[in-house]
Fold:
Amino acid sequence: MQRFLGMVFRVPVVLLGSVTKKDIADVLGDIAVLLELKGENPFKIRAYQNGARVIEALGEDLGEVIASGRLAGIKGVGEALTQKITELHTTGRLRFYDELRASVAPGLVEMLEISGLGPKKIKVLHERLGVAGIADLQKACDGGLVAELPGFGEKTQQKLLEGIKNREAYGRRHLWWDACMIAEPIVEGLRKLRGVRHAEVAGSLRRGLETVGDLDFIVAADADDAKAVDRIMDWFTTRPGVHEVTARGETKASVRYEGGLQADLRIVPGEQFAFALHHFTGSKDHNVQMRQRALAHGLSLSEWGLEPAEGEGTVKAKAAGRAKSAKITSETELFEALGLAFIEPELREGLGEIEAAEKNNLPTLIKESDLRGAFHNHTTSSDGRNTLEEMVAAAEALSWDYIGIADHSKASFQARGLDEPRLAAQIGSIRKINASKRFRTHVFAGTECDILTDGSLDFDDITLAQLDYVVASVHNGFSQDEDRMTARIIRAIENPHVTMLGHLTGRLLLRRESYRVNTAKVIDAAIANDVAIELNASPWRLDMDWRLWRGAAERGLLCSINPDAHETGHLAYVRAGIKAARKGWLTKENVINTRPLAKMRPWLETHRA
Ligand code: DGT
Ligand code: CA
Ligand code: CA
Ligand code: ZN
Structure:
């Protein structure tokens, strides 16, 4: 299992909605870390670690286990954990956890975000060197004190310095998905407030950028309601999860949520809403080009309106400008006033969208409802958290026509990759499920086959030939130089059994750089061999990057939007993938998993050796 930096305290104090086993396991894991930071009894720490594992692996519905009083009887749970798990499950919070969090110095907790630094080391640093936060740690490393500590050494010290640097570079931004989970309930809440006519989230979130710096909410308030603005500001600044109100003016407020994400709220009169929404959606490059275009029409575009340009102020232009501004109530009308077709927010990066809109040449972007299934999904056979049946049932609940199961291959032993006999057994189970007609959703049998360091595949041809499709991915040997890595991946693409390439660059957003690979050469090879490249929709990956898709698709590359789901809830990640695909100017035709089953089957057939 991957342990992500910053995983600690990804769990908010109050869990909203239904509390999942995963949520509870995360809280128990956090508790273990906090206890370790405090230097508590190792047995107690281990009890929480065990408890987390047990709950995560629990095969039944937790609510039922609690209701029937069987929780305490489960091996590894016990009395104290039973009480805490029950409290968490029923109320969505745990007082013990809140108090524990409050009792540990925030500086120590923050140090957990540095890669290579766990609670044990932090405790030593604290006790031996008085390090109470990241700034202290930096100083101690610079002064060479850390290298001298027993169990640390020169190399560790160097690693910690690097970790501090990375955290600074990454720490300011947030995953699109995480930002979205925070923003959505706020937009919905704003819309329900009395005196609110429109509310939207603008900025990079609306444009679907893979990471988000801060949130930008735009609200149109009812001009007839004198109290509306205050009411909206009060509501916004007192949401649960608001850690700090950093600014509050007459029509503008800024807050910081737990977890560090900041948000700006701007309240505007109804007639300015379209302009403000457009302006604060950005991007800056798009805005600059839009303003230039307006100027060429003798108009000045701003967040407040569309007016005759200064100096260009002939009576005629003035009249035209005022008339235009007055009747513009939507972004569509704003674009229209400048002779442009509506430009979807995802395209507003200043990368040629205005020219395309002028020529009425914008693509019809793929949308969520176009997807009919997805191919890169894991089950409990490898490192997934749900069984084959549960994954299929979840796909059926999404009305998918098909779901592909692609568990890891044997070289990924840390992910419990399948060897040949286990793969054969899984193929058998899949064929049986299909034959039983239990589900309306068809199941394709695949593999996420490791590309070994020399570019050969982890399964031989006879094994691969048993499958409906093959996703080939790199999971080790990340330090190869660019030429070797590129040749390695191309060799895999040239294997006639390979249907698609998994996560092209191996990047983990905000956490791990890509390995070195010549993406242009890989794309060419994929096109030449009629192999698709996946757009891995996991919010941490979004790989291959949207910036590469437009050009690649124009040259004929096919995309598969894959959630890389490790549990049923992750199937929803396709939403992030769709957003990224739209940023890459992709249409329904560019993406293979928009095809209905009747067309998908023959396509996969022709892609089998
Ligand atoms: P972020 O928050 O870093 O992920 O990116 P954005 O795009 O959300 O940027 P943000 O929050 O600084 O500002 C929101 C939008 O407001 C931005 O996309 C475009 C507009 N904007 C902000 N500052 C400027 C500026 O100096 N010039 C222009 N033309 N537009 C700006
Ligand atoms: Ca922003
Ligand atoms: Ca902002
Ligand atoms: Zn993978």
Observations:
- The first strand starts at residue 174 and ends at 175.
- The pocket of zinc ion (ligand 4) is lined by residues 448, 473, 475, 502-503 (CB under 6 Å).
- The two ends are 33 Å apart (CA to CA).
